[in-house]
Specification:
Layout: E1 3-10, H1 14-21, E2 34-39, E3 44-51, E4 54-66, E5 70-78, E6 82-92, E7 95-104, H2 108-116, H3 119-138
Antiparallel strand pairs: 1-7, 2-3, 3-4, 4-5, 5-6, 6-7
């Protein structure tokens, strides 16, 4: 199972970075492969996207969420099998480090080849760069869920 860990520093306070990250329906604005996300409940989302030009749909269940610290999830159904976590680290009052870890199941020759070549790592790094540009240009979040989900 491929595993990717990527980190980026963003020039916004931790609460702003965290709040924006919990606005899942905004993900298509900075995640290249995401076409839409529907928040079904506080802990369940439905995703539609294209990975390697192939349309994919899946549900993701938030398994753990702690304000300004972390959001963990895993897929629960659909065409993508993965689990991940993003953590938020305060570097200063105006700078935050985000670290994403994603484990996923490569299916088929194209996905296995892409994982072997590091295409997944490159895509996640690019999406984190997109998030950095998005949140720094806004300077503020568009809301956020401040609740807590225990593991």
């Amino acid at each position: 199972m491929p595993n990717v860990i990527e980190t980026i520093d963003v020039n916004v306070p931790i609460a702003v970075a965290y709040n924006q990250w919990t606005e899942f329906e905004d993900f298509p604005k900075f995640l290249d492969f995401v076409e839409s996300i529907t928040q079904v409940t506080d802990t369940l989302t439905e995703w539609k996207g294209k990975i390697g030009g192939i349309e994919r749909e899946f549900e993701a269940q938030i398994t753990e969420q702690h304000r300004d610290e972390r959001v963990a999830w895993n897929s629960t159904g659909g065409q993508v099998d993965h689990a991940g976590v993003i953590t938020f680290h305060k570097l200063s009052d105006s700078e935050t480090r985000l670290t994403v870890q994603l484990d996923w199941e490569a299916k088929g020759l194209l996905e296995k080849a892409g994982a072997a070549l590091g295409v997944d790592k490159h895509a996640i790094k690019k999406d984190l760069d997109n998030f950095k540009q998005f949140i720094e240009a806004k300077g503020t979040d568009s809301g956020g869920w401040r609740g807590d989900v225990q593991a």
